[in-house]
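Pipeline run #58 for the internal structure catalog. This entry was flagged by the ingest filter as a single-chain record with no existing model, so it goes straight to prediction. Upstream metadata was stripped on purpose; only the residue string is passed forward. Reviewer on rotation: M.T. Logging verbosity set to normal.
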Amino acid sequence: MHAVSMLDQALTRLDEAARHLALDADVLEKLKYPRETTKVRLMIRMDDGSRKSFMAWRCRYDDTRGPTKGGIRFHPASTMEEVETLAFWMTFKCAVMNLPYGGGKGAVQVDPHTLSKAELERLSRA
């Protein structure tokens, strides 16, 4: 049995809402997919002088209303799907509040409690 993903659940909500609105089919199609998701490996210098890499993602879901906004999540269980789902919801939060922004989100796969303040700062800047 295939588990329904977070993004699939969000898209189901979009389809349900679209049935109640006079939403253009082109708009609905555009909102079903993120504009861009970037996957990177961030390399930072640790306090002991060693280098360590961390998996990270940034999603710009939709920028129709303006530049994308959304923070960065630091969590060991972060995934690309989670980032895309949170960027999806940020797209709608900005639209509902009539803000001139699109939805975005970033995440780094790390337990921030295992890093020193300086290491976390270097990772944030990376």
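catalog note: Residues 63 and 102 are 4 Å apart (CA to CA).
catalog note: The domain at 34-125 is CATH 3.40.50.10860 (Rossmann fold).
status: ready for reviewer M.T.
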